[in-house]
Amino acid sequence: MPSQLLKEFLDENDIKYISIMHSMAFTAVEVAKSVHIRSRELAKTVVLNVDNELAMAVVPANYKVNLDILRQTLNTDNVQLAKESEFTPRFKDCEVGAMPPFGCLYDMDVYIAESLSEDDTIAFNAGSHLEAIKMNYKDYENLVKPRFIFLDN
To answer: Which range marks the domain in which residue 19 is found?
Structure first.
């Protein structure tokens, strides 16, 4: 089952989505293989500390986060990967590493790789290592209002 918070949010906003059960998977690339989605089309959530505030970078599953590119893109020297101890208290309804890319639910800014907007749909972890959600990309963008980042991989 998706995170209860996410499910309620999508349902309250009358968003159509598909919930995809899959075998246990701990990396975004494993999830993509399990649900038969190309890894560049599955979004993974990486929690960052940007100027001492938590934020989400939403990037393709096969992308390796390059902090130097993010620092340049976000125009700050203070960008680093957040420690689990910093962000897990915000994700009480999620398993660590399976957080959905909905910063609006967790009081975080969202920076999304522009390449993810090129598809009609977006797929991502639903809060557990056993389920993903696929939904219309425009619905996602309208709900989350992410800021685009242009990343070279």
So the answer is: 4-149
